[in-house]
Every structure is written in structure tokens, then in C-alpha cells.
Amino acid sequence: MRFRYILHTLVFSLFGIPSIISAEDKPNIVIILTDDQGYADVSYNPHSPPEVRTPNIDDLAHSSVICTQGYTSGHVCSTTRAGLMTGRYQQRFGIYTAGEGGSGVPLDEVFIPQRLKPAGYVSGALGKWHLGLTEEYHAMNRGFDEFYGFMGRGAHPYFDHSDMDHPIYRGLKPIKEEGYLTTRITEEAVSFINRHKEEPFFLYVAYNAVHSPPEAPDEDIKNVTGNKKRDTLMAMIKHLDLGVGKIVSSLKKHNIFDNTLLIFLTDNGGSKTMSANNAPLRGFKQMDYEGGVHVPFIVSWPAQLKGGKKCEVPMWSIDLFATALDAAGLPMPKGKALDGKSILPALRGETEKLHDEFYWSSAGEKGKWAIRSGNWKLVAEKKRIELYNLKKDLSETTDLAAKYPKVVSELTAKYNA
């Protein structure tokens, strides 16, 4: 089994491609991406309300690096996923909205597992794909070796999987499935780890929890807030948290947790329609205010990163492509340049800045866009432009556009450049 990875190393060397990390030392890479989870709907956040209990996510956070300024490149599902998988602004290849991303990322864009495969990684994608509806866009035609989940639609029922027009897939084939989907995704993640514990792997666990519809086992829905939807959301978060705990426990059981780069984040801000809590941030999913793009973001790699600390360097989901390659000791790709950068230097305290600016854009009738440069953030829609100083006003309560017109002009010029 190990011979295959030694052979890969020799191939890299013969063709002049650096293989910095030996096959034995290559880390596993796990990305856990939750869906529409509120910024304060993790109880390690001091702003979380009392009904929120995420003990397993909290344990992971407190032993890891909590990235306090972690962002996503989109304020809706598939836009963020497209940027994450390619390491590039999704707008570069025409994806501004969930509909465009859900229809498919252009096939000439390279995904993370396609870069990892030559280094001997086996890759699995689980849960919500939302990066193409037809077979050519299927995860297993984008570099993944295994897939369990659903292809399209932002939302998917948690209990009723009988709609074979929108089925659950195992590999390339639709299957008849039963059970609570959050639990099933967790079981598949644990199975993948059990089967591939002896080889380096990339596991992408894209829970559809806690996206609508609000569905959870009846016995877990407690009347704690007086808001039925919020109470159901708490039950959904309970099962999500249990899933994170089981994934971590499986890695530890096989003594591979320490050399696993595990990244936990959500795909955009919490949804107002699901009664999510994004405190202390303003706004929700589908907005470019902090509440739409500033998310829970945790990084664990005990063998390489000192845990129990916070990193305040701004970073985002687009950076995960370069981070995965960096962790695996692989070179950055030539040709199409990445917009993301490895976050590992920031997590090690070796740099205080990864990006000069962060950009958000959802073209179309509403024309929403935003740019962050340093502590300044410009939020725009049609002719409305607002300016905030995030260092002094993280909740974006005081519009400073009229007071600092020069800053508005400079940021607008940067966005339009």
C-alpha cells in the first residue's frame, strides 16, 4: 500500500516537481462545511444565546486555532463552494449566484482533489454538492474517488428521500435511502476514515445542515425559546455537533488526528428564514454585511499548529485550496493563478496579513457588491454605498461614507479595477 505513495514521490522528483513532504508524513485533509449556520450558533462564541449547545464543536475549537476573521467568498451556498473548490474568485468563471453555481462550474476549472490525486491522496465528497446537476459535473468527475450525497438544489429533505428526480447518490448511481440525512452523512464520513486510515486522504464533508427545511427528530425538538423554528434549528444543530464529534473521535481512534489538517467552517452567514443568530454581526445570508459572509472558522492540525489560541488575520474560504496544497507539500499550480493563499503562515504567527483586499459581488438586477481593505469595508447595492470601520464597528452600525468620501472613492476604484 505504501509503495504506491513512494512511487508517486519518485514521479514528482523525476519530473522536477517538488515533493516536500514524504509519503509517510503527508497529512490527511478534512474540510467540514456546514450550511447556513449562524455566527453565534456555536456555543464557543461568547455572543451565543443560552439555547445553543455545541460541546463537540467547542472542544474542537478550544484545542485548535479559532480564526476570528474568517470569511466566505459568497453570501449564498454554491458561490462559496465554487470558490473553495477552485481557490479562485468564482466570479472569474461566471458564478455570481446560487443558480449559476448549482448549474455547474466550468470543466476547465481544477478542483482540490484533482491537484491532490498525483500525490497519492484518495478523496471523498459527502453531502451537499451544489456544483453541477449533470454527470459531467459530478464530484467523481471532478477528482473525487467517492461520493455520497445529493447533486443539486440548495435545500434537500432530511427524512424523505423518495423523490428520485432529486435522489441521494452513492458514487454515480442514485439510490433509495432512509434515515436522518445529517446522521447518514456522519456515518459515511466515519466509514470513509475507517477504510482509508492507512493512506493520505482528502475528505470533504458538506453537511446540508442547518439549511432549510427545518426538520429534526421529534424527540430532540424542545420548547426552549418559544419559537418552533428556532427550537427545531437547535435540534438540527445538536445532530450536526454530534457528527463533528464522531468524525474527530474516529480520527483519534486510528491515531491519525494529530496529522490531520481539519478545517471547520460554514458556507455563508446564518439564514433569517431559519431564525439563525449571527450576533454580534449585522445581517444574514444573502447580504454582504458581516452577518452574510463572516462565519465560524476553526483550523486544527496538532502536529503542526499550536492549538488553544485565536488568529485575527483576515482569511477566507478561497484560501483553502492553496492551504491544502501547502499542507501536502505540493507546488502552487501554474497557468490560472489562484486568488487564495495558504493560511498556514498566518496560523503560525509568521504573517499579519494574507490579502490586501477582499471582494464580494452578486451581479444582476440588485447589483450587490462589497470590498474590505484593511479595517475599511464598503457595502453597496445599486446607488447605495455605505462605509464601515470594522475595527471600531464590527456590527456595522455607523455609516461613515459621508464623513470619508475619499475612502469611498479609493475603495470603489479598487473594486472596479
Structure characterization notes:
By secondary structure, the protein is an alpha/beta fold. Helix content is 27%, strand content 18%. The protein has two domains: 26-355, Alkaline Phosphatase, subunit A; 364-417, 2-Layer Sandwich (Arylsulfatase, C-terminal domain). It contains eleven helices and 16 strands. The protein has a ten-stranded mixed sheet with strand order 7-6-5-4-8-1-9-10-2-11, covered by helices on one side.
Task: Please indicate the count of domains.
Answer: 2
Note the overall shape. Answer: globular
Share of helix, binned:
25-40%
Predict the CATH topology of the largest domain. Alkaline Phosphatase, subunit A
List keywords for this structure.
10-stranded mixed beta sheet; 417 residues; Alkaline Phosphatase, subunit A; Arylsulfatase, C-terminal domain; alpha/beta
What does this entry show, briefly?
The protein has 417 residues and is of the alpha/beta class. It is 27% helix and 18% strand.
Secondary structure elements and pairings:
Layout: H1 2-14, E1 28-34, H2 55-62, E2 65-67, E3 70-71, H3 77-86, H4 98-103, H5 112-116, E4 122-128, E5 146-150, E6 168-170, E7 173-175, H6 181-196, E8 201-206, H7 228-253, E9 260-266, H8 290-293, E10 297-300, E11 309-311, E12 315-316, H9 319-327, H10 344-347, E13 357-362, E14 368-373, E15 376-381, E16 384-389, H11 405-416
Parallel strand pairs: 1-8, 1-9, 2-11, 3-12, 4-5, 4-8
Antiparallel strand pairs: 2-10, 5-6, 6-7, 9-10, 13-14, 14-15, 15-16
Helix pairs in contact: 2-7, 6-7
